[in-house]
């Protein structure tokens, strides 16, 4: 094992890289498929842009054989944290590769500052007029509560998330309408950012405060369950809150889990048809990061008329939409290129609609669809359900 000066090691995750990465390069290809897995390595074509190289960068920094420099920045920050490398790597640290990359980012932020444009995410989020990374005034959600006649105390909180609340409002509105139609006893809180943009870009200094704030707000309304329509918020609440010591005792669900329960228990039945060919795009934060692959597919299959077709790259082998890990703001053109590849995968299988269950995937796929004249309809599952006749018991 390599000797490391313990005082240099900021995170346990980085130590894992020393012990286990044998630089075999398996992370560059889908496991047993031998097809490229990493959007970053495929684009930039230098070793330091694949997971194996980023781990070498971490080792070099920690052994002080590599000095911090502006040149290192891109190789550290041009990664969507999609986790495809975690799925390919067969070594014991595989599950922690994204944690290793995020820990390296934390050290980079301390030494050479954040990735390109990524400081904007956190400056805006920390702004008390905003509390979100989009730079728009904070919505307390009081107007929505009034519009939809939502109570002050409830069993569930619908945590909207910044992307659905400030960019993809159709997902937010469709989700609220569906929860109302289903008779779920829920409300909204004056939520602040879930911290995903901070954590993914290594800018974690105020993350814990945001986590604690959101936990307190959820407690205040007496809820013991949270549901979110955002794959990023879902991962953050379940995995990152605990990692950062922000513990809570309410249950966390993605909307697809709640919907699946309603369908399975016979409380929800979809009556009208949706006669379209749909392909489902697995959001990285719901699929590889959280292991949810089948639940959304089972819901599409219960919509009469839907022809569900699979892209060749699906489930754990799905190609990233290109937006995550601060790439959408840091490398906007490359983010669209990655997404355009996804459109090509959908075209190959004759899909008319590309559907997902993450507002951030919807944003980037829609942007690429517009930019490259993709000709698809890009819709969240909830938006599709919102148009259908559904019987609730
Ligand atoms: S991260 Fe895993 S797959 Fe990649 S080089 Fe290291 S051991 Fe091999
Ligand atoms: S998380 Fe995705 S983009 Fe980043 S190194 Fe792994 S495969 Fe490449």
Plain-language structure description:
With 393 residues, the chain is α/β, with parallel strands linked by helices. The chain folds into three domains: 6-112, Fumarate Reductase Iron-sulfur Protein, Chain B, domain 2 (Orthogonal Bundle), CATH 1.10.1060.10; 118-261, Rossmann fold (3-Layer(aba) Sandwich); 270-392, 3-Layer(aba) Sandwich (Rossmann fold). 46% of the residues lie in helices and 9% in strands. It has 19 helices and ten strands. Helix 14 (255-264) crosses helix 15 (294-301). It is globular and about 65 Å long. One iron/sulfur cluster (SF4) is lined by residues 21-27, 51-52, 55, 89, 91, 97.
Which structural class do you get from the secondary structure elements? alpha/beta
| CATH top level class name of the largest domain | Alpha Beta
What can be said about the biggest beta sheet? 4 strands, parallel
Distance between the termini: 61 Å
Instruction: Return the string of H and E elements.
Output: HHHHHHHHEHHEHHEHEHEEHEHHEHEHE
Q: Report the radius of gyration as a whole number of Å.
A: 21 Å
| Helix content percent band | 40-55%
Q: State the domain count.
A: 3
Mean pLDDT equals 94
Tell the overall outline. Answer: globular
**What do we call the CATH topology of the largest domain?**
Rossmann fold
Beta fraction: 5-15%
Number of strands: 10
The CATH architecture of the largest domain comes to 3-Layer(aba) Sandwich
Number of H/I helices: 19
Poorly predicted tracts of residues? none
Give, in spatial order, the strands making up the sheet with the most strands.
2-1-3-4
């Amino acid at each position: 094992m390599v000797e490391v000066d313990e005082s240099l090691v900021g995170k346990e995750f980085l130590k894992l890289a020393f012990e286990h990465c044998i630089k075999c390069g398996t992370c560059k290809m889908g496991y047993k498929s031998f097809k490229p897995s990493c959007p970053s390595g495929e684009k930039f074509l230098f070793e330091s842009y694949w997971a194996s190289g980023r781990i070498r960068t971490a080792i070099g920094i920690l052994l002080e054989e590599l000095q911090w420099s502006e040149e290192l920045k891109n190789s550290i920050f041009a990664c969507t944290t999609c986790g495809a490398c975690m799925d390919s790597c067969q070594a014991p640290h595989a599950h922690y590769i994204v944690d290793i990359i995020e820990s390296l980012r934390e050290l980079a932020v301390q030494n050479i500052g954040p990735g390109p444009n990524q400081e904007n995410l956190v400056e805006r989020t920390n702004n008390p007029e905003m509390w979100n990374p989009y730079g728009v005034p904070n919505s307390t959600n009081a107007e929505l509560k009034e519009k939809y006649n939502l109570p002050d105390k409830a069993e569930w909180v619908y945590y909207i998330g910044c992307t659905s609340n400030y960019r993809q409002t159709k997902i937010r509105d469709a989700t609220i309408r569906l929860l109302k139609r289903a008779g779920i006893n829920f409300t909204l809180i004056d939520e602040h950012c879930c911290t995903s943009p901070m954590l993914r870009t290594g800018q974690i200094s105020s993350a814990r405060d945001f986590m604690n704030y959101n936990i307190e707000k959820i407690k205040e309304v007496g809820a013991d369950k949270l549901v979110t329509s955002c794959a990023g918020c879902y991962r953050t609440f379940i995995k990152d809150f605990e990692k950062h010591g922000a513990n809570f005792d309410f249950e966390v669900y993605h909307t697809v889990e709640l919907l699946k329960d309603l369908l399975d228990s016979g409380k929800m039945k979809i009556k009208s048809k949706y006669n379209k060919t749909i392909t489902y795009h697995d959001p990285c934060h719901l699929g590889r990061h959280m292991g949810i692959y089948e639940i959304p597919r089972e819901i599409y299959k219960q919509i009469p008329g839907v022809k569900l077709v699979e892209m060749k790259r699906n489930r754990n082998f799905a190609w990233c939409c290109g937006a995550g890990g601060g790439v959408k703001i840091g490398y906007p053109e490359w983010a669209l290129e990655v997404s355009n590849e996804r459109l090509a995968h959908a075209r190959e299988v004759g899909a008319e609609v590309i559907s997902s269950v993450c507002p951030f995937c919807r944003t980037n796929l829609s942007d690429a669809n517009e930019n490259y004249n993709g000709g698809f309809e890009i819709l969240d599952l909830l938006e599709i359900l919102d148009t259908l006749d559904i019987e609730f018991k």
